[in-house]
Specification:
Layout (H helix, E strand, L loop, with lengths): L5 E6 L2 E6 L10 H16 L5 E5 L4 E3 L4 H4 L4 H7 L1 H4 L1 H4 L5 E5 L2 E3 L1 H8 L2 E5 L3 E3 L13 H9 L1 H10 L3 E2 H6 L5 E3 L4 H13 L3 H16 L2 H15 L3 H11 L10
Parallel strand pairs: 2-3, 3-5, 4-6, 5-7, 6-8, 7-10
Antiparallel strand pairs: 1-2, 8-9
Helix pairs in contact: 7-8, 11-12
Bound molecules: hexanoyl-coenzyme A.
Length: 257
């Protein structure tokens, strides 16, 4: 599949999506978001792929939703365009998604990174929700995911006062998994994705779904979800293979069955 605003590639069971609107700081317009979701859905059903990496360039992950596209839109046009709903498509992806972020991850760019399951940042990454400077607020999860990631006090400062976080601050406050030199961030994300992609696929899928429930359900409901996900895995061949391989002191061969 060829796209206009993103590049896609598969490397050793990892699907890689590179945001590619350098002339506009990878601003997320509706074409880019539509193509991104299409590519994610394609990777999600491809049995040869076990994990996905979304990245940008060293200078910019994404500088937010496309301001020129939004500037003249009315509230009704914003509602009926379903542009913001496209971000929800990321939540529907069952395979792990890692954001490899360098440079600016602002506004919708920060929201996109936070909608992924993990973030690997370069030392040059900057995370922020500057929408208040444009007379709006984060509309694709920023006020919610940021608050859950970094806590209320800091989220308030970032959203109300457009404070950006350096990569190191993002690490300290639990927004990102790793900070590495700029020459290494993509490689680090790819290695992490590759390691996950060779694990038992059904277990990884259930694990992602279960961790995500911690966001959405009460503890009682989430524990019940986790338990059922755990029980389900005993109906898979991979569980039999994994436990047998352990007792036989050999590597397991996963089939995703
Ligand atoms: C459209 C953008 C853009 C954006 C940058 N550009 N960000 N175009 N939408 N979000 C364009 C610029 O207009 C410029 O185009 C080119 O990219 C290069 O940008 P510069 O500003 O010249 O680069 P620089 O001086 O290096 O500054 C980089 C920057 C700055 C700090 C990232 O561009 C910036 O502040 N961008 C806006 C960040 C922002 O406010 N994001 C939130 C958007 S609202 P020309 O044609 O002049 O060369 C949002 C809401 C999400 O995300 C809600 C739900 C989806």
């Amino acid at each position: 599949m060829s796209y206009e605003t993103i590049l896609t590639e598969v490397k050793e069971k990892v699907g890689i999506i590179t945001l590619n609107r350098p002339q506009a700081m990878n601003a997320l317009n509706s074409d880019l978001m539509t193509e991104l979701i299409e590519a994610l859905l394609d990777f999600d059903i491809d049995e040869e792929i076990g994990a996905i990496v979304i990245t940008g360039s060293e200078k910019v992950f994404a500088a937010g939703a496309d301001i020129s596209e939004m500037a003249e839109m009315s509230a009704v046009e914003m509602l009926t365009s379903s542009f913001v709903e496209l971000f929800d498509g990321i939540r529907d992806i069952k395979k792990p998604i890692i954001a490899a972020v360098s440079g600016y991850a602002l506004g919708g760019g920060c929201e996109l990174a936070m909608a992924c399951d993990m973030i690997v940042a370069s030392e040059k990454a900057k995370f922020g929700q500057p929408e208040v400077n444009l007379g709006v607020i984060p509309g694709a999860g920023g006020t919610q995911r940021l608050t859950r990631a970094v806590g209320k006090a800091l989220a308030m400062e970032m959203v109300l006062n457009a404070r950006n976080l350096s990569a190191q601050e993002a690490l300290e406050f639990g927004l990102v998994n790793y900070v590495v030199p700029v020459e290494e961030y993509l490689d680090k994300a790819l290695k992490l994705a590759k390691r996950i992609s060779v694990r038992a696929p059904l277990a990884v899928r259930q694990a992602k779904a279960s961790v995500n429930k911690a966001y959405e359900l009460s503890l009682t409901e989430a524990l019940a979800f986790e338990r059922n996900a755990f029980y389900f895995l005993f109906a898979t061949e991979d569980q039999k293979e994994g436990m047998q391989a352990f007792t036989e002191k050999r590597s397991a061969k996963w089939q995703g069955k």
